[in-house]
């Protein structure tokens, strides 16, 4: 069956099944005449936008119908005859108010058959380059909304953004309109042939075209004109051909029309679809309103502000610095800040608050450590002052003890001088006097040494040394012996056999024992002198703890005050400071020990403290509270 018969049958079927619906008096009938079909780019995009703009701008109800000219796909003009017959029959009873031809083939068709079909119907030629319109053949019923494609500028845009380009493949098919534009592009880019070589695809099937695109050498680019009919005679509708080319191409793709923009092409100066469609709709509304088409003058739509796809720029390494001035970059991926601004702000704010809290805690910690250091220093001062006070209280005893050896020294010195003054000195007696002087001197030195121990200042309670607890008790008894005799108190010692080595400052432990024994002697001031007795015991508790107990025969501790006696500044003495027992507790606990007091069953009170042995100090400091053991003490 010939092309003529097939088209005739199609026209007859359309005449039967596509008869126009009756329109109301207020309805305007508009026919959109397509060059190739409703799905061929770029005209399909223009048709959609024109329809939308007509509906938006028109004050009337519109009845818009679409018809496609299929003959533009080939060079054979014979099938146009039945299509003309079809249109005459279609509009025989009621002609449209306006015909809008979209694309150059539709415009050429209308101008060829205007006397037979549309002699007095207003026409708007749109989406057509001004070079494709026969302006001399226009009637008073015609108006053109033309475009002007500047191919040279389009190619120069490629060379500007990719200055190393050496080859441009121009995609163009074999249909008459495509061949026309191949010649026009060749004329436009002829001055650029000394800079770049051009390859044409009208002699290739589309499959071969894809292979060539995939094998393009470096520094190549592709310029997409049209691909309606390839060399094998296949027709390509919609965006399928461009999408396939994009999928295999190893070179960036450029074009001239915005309808191709959005994924496959890089961009550049483009014909803006909305500019042309909006102007077309505005002209159409004026004609539908009664204005003569021939009296409406329009200017050609040219390239708009260059527009580029940021994604393709990133893919092909195109710097924004190479874009034409004023270019618009779209589809730019938002930065992390733009995408997560509120989340980042919230996180930074949280970090700022957290940093402020950490800084505040560090300042607090530093302040606390300084306060602890100051407190430790003050505690050392208090300890020293307490020992000085004790030394002052025992000064009479020291004076009494020193009086005997110094008197002995003085008497023996006089005796020696007397013996030496004789004509015949008795050397034996002089030797005895010197020996007595030496003994008295050693005695005085021992008494002074004990006093210095009591008054000695230590720099830090954490400075520890291995100390025998039994030796500390012996020093305490030596220091307190004179005071005990003066108060008529008997001091008894029950010393554990073997050494009790603890890691502690001996002066600190001596201060604790002196405090406890002095308090015990004070507690017995009101009982008969015959019963005044203080027992000092040392003991080994288990394998890691040593203990000391000071037992007196006094009235005991009232139960109501038992829990307060170790509190700072608590005292029951008329001239007491309330620091002795508090300081004793501080010293014992600083070495990982514990101190407490109890009443004895037979009367009197016992003060006890325990302290870890030197081999277990570190462990005992962590577990002392769990391992405190109290050994019953009997007076």
Protein architecture, described:
This protein folds into four domains: 145 residues, 3-Layer(aba) Sandwich (Rossmann fold); 148 residues, Rossmann fold; 26 residues; 174 residues, Heat Shock Protein 90 (2-Layer Sandwich). Helix content is 46%, strand content 16%. It is built from 18 helices and 19 strands. Helix 10 links the parallel strand 11 and strand 12. Helix 3 packs across helix 4 and helix 16 runs antiparallel to helix 17. The chain is rod-shaped. It starts with a helix and ends in an 8-residue tail after the last helix.
Short description:
This protein is α/β, with parallel strands linked by helices. The chain has helices at residues 3-17, 43-57, 80-90, 104-117, 151-161, 176-189, 206-214, 240-248, 273-288, 310-316, 336-339, 341-393, 395-420, 427-455, 469-486, 506-523, 580-590, 617-627; strands spanning 27-34, 61-68, 98-102, 123-129, 142-147, 167-171, 197-200, 220-224, 253-255, 267-268, 307-309, 328-330, 466-468, 490-494, 501-503, 533-541, 545-551, 594-599, 605-612.
Work out the count of structural domains. 4
Average pLDDT works out at 83
Q: What structural class is derived from the secondary structure elements?
A: alpha/beta
Give the biggest beta sheet. Answer: 5 strands, parallel
Overall form: rod-shaped
Number of helices: 18
- The counted number of beta strands is 19
Oligomeric state of this protein: single chain
CATH-derived architecture of the largest domain: 2-Layer Sandwich
């Amino acid at each position: 069956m010939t092309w003529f018969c097939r088209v005739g049958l199609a026209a007859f079927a359309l005449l039967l099944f596509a008869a126009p619906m009756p329109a109301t008096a207020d309805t305007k009938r508009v026919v959109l005449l397509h060059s190739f079909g409703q799905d061929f780019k770029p005209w399909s995009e223009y048709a959609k936008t024109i329809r939308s703009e007509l509906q938006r701008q028109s004050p009337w109800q519109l009845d818009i119908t679409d018809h496609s000219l299929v003959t533009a796909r080939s060079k054979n003009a014979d099938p146009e005859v039945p299509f003309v017959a079809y249109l005459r029959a279609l509009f025989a009873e009621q002609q449209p108010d306006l015909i809008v031809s979209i694309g150059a083939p539709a415009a050429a068709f209308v101008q060829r058959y205007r006397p037979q079909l549309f002699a007095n119907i207003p026409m708007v030629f749109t989406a057509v380059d001004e070079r494709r319109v026969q302006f001399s053949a226009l009637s008073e019923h015609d108006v053109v909304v033309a475009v002007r494609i500047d191919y040279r500028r389009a190619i120069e845009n490629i060379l500007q953004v990719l200055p190393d380009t050496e080859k441009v493949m121009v995609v163009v098919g074999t249909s008459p309109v495509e061949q026309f534009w191949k010649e026009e592009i060749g004329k436009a880019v002829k001055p650029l042939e000394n800079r770049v070589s051009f390859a044409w695809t009208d002699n290739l099937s589309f499959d071969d075209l894809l292979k060539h695109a995939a094998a393009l050498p470096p520094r190549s680019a592709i310029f997409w004109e049209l691909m309606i009919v390839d060399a094998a005679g296949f027709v390509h509708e919609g965006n399928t051909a461009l999408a396939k080319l994009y999928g295999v191409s190893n070179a960036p793709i450029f074009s001239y029309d915005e309808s191709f923009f959005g994924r496959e092409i890089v961009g550049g100066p483009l014909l803006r679809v909305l500019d042309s469609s909006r102007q077309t709709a505005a002209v159409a509304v004026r004609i539908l309103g009664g204005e003569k088409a021939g009296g409406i003058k329009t200017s050609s739509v040219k390239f708009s502000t260059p527009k580029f796809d940021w994604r393709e720029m990133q893919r092909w390494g195109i710097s924004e610095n190479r874009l034409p001035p004023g270019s618009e970059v779209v589809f730019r991926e938002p930065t992390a800040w733009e995408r997560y601004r509120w989340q980042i702000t919230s996180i930074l704010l949280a970090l700022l608050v957290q940093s402020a809290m950490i800084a505040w805690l560090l300042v607090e910690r530093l302040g606390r450590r300084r306060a602890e250091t100051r407190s430790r220093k003050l505690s050392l001062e208090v300890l020293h002052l307490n020992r000085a006070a004790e030394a002052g209280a025992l000064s009479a005893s020291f004076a009494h003890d020193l009086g005997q050896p110094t008197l002995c020294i003085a008497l023996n010195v006089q005796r020696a001088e007397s013996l030496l003054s004789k004509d015949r000195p008795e050397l034996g007696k002089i030797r005895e006097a010197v020996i007595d002087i030496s003994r008295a001197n050693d005695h005085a030195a021992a008494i002074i040494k004990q006093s210095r121990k009591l008054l000695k200042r230590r720099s830090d309670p954490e400075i520890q040394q291995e100390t025998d607890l039994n030796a500390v008790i012996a020093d305490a008894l030596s220091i307190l012996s004179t005071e005990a005799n003066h108060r008529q108190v008997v001091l008894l010692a029950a010393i554990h056999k073997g050494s009790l080595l603890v890691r502690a400052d001996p002066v600190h432990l001596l201060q604790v024992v002196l405090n406890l024994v002095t308090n015990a002697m004070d507690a017995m001031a009101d009982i008969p002198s015959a019963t005044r007795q203080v027992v000092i015991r040392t003991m080994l508790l288990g394998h890691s703890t040593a203990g000391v107990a000071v037992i007196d025969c006094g009235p005991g501790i009232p139960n109501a005050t038992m829990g307060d006696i170790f509190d700072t500044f608590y005292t029951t003495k008329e001239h007491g400071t309330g620091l002795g027992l508090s300081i004793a507790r501080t010293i014992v606990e600083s070495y990982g020990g514990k101190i407490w007091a109890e009443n004895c069953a037979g009367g009197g009170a016992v003060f006890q403290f325990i302290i870890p042995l030197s081999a277990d100090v570190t462990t005992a400091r962590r577990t002392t509270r769990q391992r405190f053991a109290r050994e019953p003490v009997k007076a």
